[in-house]
Specification:
The chain is α/β, with parallel strands linked by helices and 453 residues long. It has 2 domains: 3-343, TIM Barrel, CATH 3.20.20; 361-452, Glutaredoxin, CATH 3.40.30.10. It has helices spanning 3-11, 28-32, 37-41, 44-58, 71-75, 117-131, 144-152, 155-162, 164-187, 205-225, 242-246, 261-270, 281-286, 290-303, 324-335, 337-343, 380-396, 410-419, 442-452, and strands at residues 20-21, 62-64, 79-81, 89-92, 136-142, 192-196, 229-233, 252-254, 274-279, 310-314, 368-373, 401-406, 426-429, 432-436. α14 (290-303) runs parallel beside α15 (324-335). The longest helix is centred in the middle third of the chain and has 24 residues, at 164-187. It is globular. The model has no long low-confidence stretch (mean pLDDT 95).
């Protein structure tokens, strides 16, 4: 089988001679050619060159063309803040200050001429012509709920309680945007449309059924009608929503390290849906060694009784600075598992042994809110969790202290271990877990702070 045939056979739920592999090398692709995030995400020649380098080094079965959940938002009036080593983040939400949630008119659907879309479509066609026969190409679009949050800001979480009918209408609109983007990417030759919606992990299953089931079911049916495969890509602890996600009928689901992959696969297998994931982004890919990556992959494969319906991939968009040799180690493990298993059979990962001193939570002068994130600049779920924390800090001012601990920093990984932080993002107040993988409404977070004031 060619690498492309491997992916397509997996998505058709067939037995394959080896596991398919999809590296989500978004901004990391820029590192391979000496470009920063903005240079690779906004310049077609740089993006094309970076993708060919990813293809050469990492030998993917499937290759995402661009990993940027802000493309649609930028076209619809969101202001972006750019970083050198991360995708842009939404810094201004055009509907945030609206008193009520009102769905924009139909003319605001992005066209193929808006924003960076023409550049992306051109690169897709060029990559399709160069490697499209041997490698399945992924077009990644921003999912309807994350797009809604980009436009409305954290208010979207309160809207679900205050004005559910308006949220339903708004989700229908965001779904139409997603359908249009899927159409453009399929026309440009994409084999798989990955609907990337990290904020799905931040809501309850009840809210998913109430607001998300209809638009996502329609979206995946639309992609199928257009002749492409679909993947429902979610970040964070989406455990509670795996089953309802399957019920929207995607061809595949992709999860990160917050989800127990084997437990999730039992659910996805029940619905005959493929599952992808979930090499840890920071502890293994960014801060680990090549042997750590090799061992993680072979151990994961060995733990899986049935490898049908499984695609190996990083948990999400790879950090910019992931060492090339670490990803090559993962490639070797998935393509040559017997040889790699022998190589790492006696390998034991080194302990960083970083000493962390926790605050004296029983004797704080004022409430202390700690926000544990993957990185609020790069992870959408973390962005909106941090947004809620920032709003609370603004409301309470000097009455409380607040800090963000990013999991991309080694010391913060050690802090998470010492604190017992199980899922990201999470909010702790005075050392006690208050919100885990669910963005709190403004009133909920303020009430939690008032309890300790």
């Amino acid at each position: 089988m060619t690498p492309k045939e491997l992916i397509l056979a997996t998505l058709r739920h067939e037995e394959t001679p080896q596991v398919a592999w999809v590296p989500f090398a978004g901004v990391h692709a820029g590192q391979l050619i000496g470009c920063n995030a903005r240079e690779v995400l906004s310049d077609g020649d740089n993006l094309y060159k970076a993708l060919i380098e990813v293809h050469k080094l990492y030998k993917p079965s499937g290759l995402p063309v661009i990993f940027d959940l802000q493309v649609e938002a930028e076209c619809l009036g969101c202001e972006l803040t750019w970083a050198d080593d991360a995708p842009p983040s939404v810094s201004h939400h055009p509907m945030e200050d609206d008193e009520d949630l009102v769905t924009p008119c139909e003319c605001t659907i992005p066209t193929k001429e808006d924003g960076r879309i023409p550049m992306i479509l051109d690169v897709m066609r060029r990559v399709k012509e160069t490697i499209g026969e041997e490698t399945a190409l992924y077009g990644l679009i921003c999912g309807p709920f994350t797009l809604a949050a980009h436009l409305r800001g954290n208010n979207i979480f309160m809207d679900m309680f205050d004005d559910p009918e308006a949220v339903e209408d708004f989700m229908d609109y965001c779904c139409k945007v997603s359908k249009a983007m899927a159409d453009y990417y399929i026309e440009a030759g994409m084999d798989v449309i990955a609907v990337v919606d990290p904020l799905i992990s931040q809501i309850s299953s009840n809210h998913f059924n109430e607001f998300m089931s209809k638009p996502f079911t329609e979206l995946f049916a639309h992609i199928r009608e257009k002749g492409a495969y679909s993947s429902f890509f979610v970040c964070g602890d989406a455990t509670r929503n795996i089953e309802v996600m399957c019920q929207t009928n995607p061809d595949a689901i992709s999860v990160d390290e917050n989800v127990n992959l084997l437990a999730a696969k039992e659910i996805t297998d029940k619905y005959n849906v493929c599952i992808g994931g979930n090499i840890p982004l920071t502890t293994i890919m960014l801060h680990g060694t090549q042997q750590d990556n090799m061992k993680y992959v072979v151990d994961l494969l060995d733990s899986m009784p049935d490898k049908r319906n499984f695609i190996l991939s990083p948990g999400c968009d790879m950090p910019y600075a992931v060492p090339v040799e670490n990803t090559i180690g993962a490639v070797q493990a998935v393509t040559q598992p017997d040889e790699v298993r022998e190589m790492v059979k006696n390998y034991v990962a080194a302990d960083d042994d970083i000493e962390i001193e926790l605050p004296d939570y029983e004797h704080l002068e004022k409430p202390f809110m700690e926000v544990f994130t993957l990185d609020s600049a790069t992870c959408a779920a973390c962005t909106y969790m941090m947004g809620a924390a920032n709003e609370a800090k603004e409301a309470f001012g000097d009455k409380i202290d607040m800090i963000e601990y990013k999991f991309t920093v080694k010391e913060n990984i050690a802090r998470c271990k010492k604190m017992g932080v199980k899922n990201l993002p999470s909010i702790y107040i005075n050392g006690k877990l208050k919100f885990s993988s669910i963005v709190p409404a403004k009133e909920e977070l303020e009430a939690a702070i008032n309890e300790v004031l």
